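Hey, quick one: can you model this chain's 3D structure?
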Amino acid sequence: MNITVKDTATPKLKALAKKLDGVTISQAAGKAVQVLLVDHFKDRQAEGNKQGWPSQGFWYGVTGSVANATAVSSVTKTTATVSIADARFALRLFGGTITPKRKKALTIPLIAEAYALQGKGSIKDLIPGSKIIQSKERAHHGFIVTEQEDGNLKFWFLLVKKTTHAPDRRALPKDAEIEQAAARASNRAVQLLAAA
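Sure thing. Here's the predicted structure for all 196 residues.
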């Protein structure tokens, strides 16, 4: 007795493989990761800053935010790359030391008013009557101050030659969350393409 088995699976698999466009699947995974990242940055922005000062929209909500710098930058049949094109974010993620580029010192805001002025122009123009005084405790530090009507000094900025930031372990979602978002989107794309 002979039993002949006909291969019916291979033609069906080949037809299915033609439907399953790798670029579309990768694109779906990349977009899902981008959305996850933007949602994460939105949540981080909602936390506010440690001092409770007015937001400058570092994470989310303004044109120059980290969220706005997040996009799917390349897609192939097997990969998708999501880029966060913001050097400030790299410093948050990996940590590092900042040194002044155009001036002799970095300005660290000491009050909310000073924090709100960052990136808006020259301190001399923004704070009339401001002057620099050296710190008695540390020769390499100074302050930008103004004299008030009562003769007391108002301290606006601390001047430092460098500052070091530790890595922010919460700069990105957990790896497992990123992997799950990509897997869910890939599986959904496969289902939709197979059903078409």
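One thing worth noting: The radius of gyration is 27 Å.
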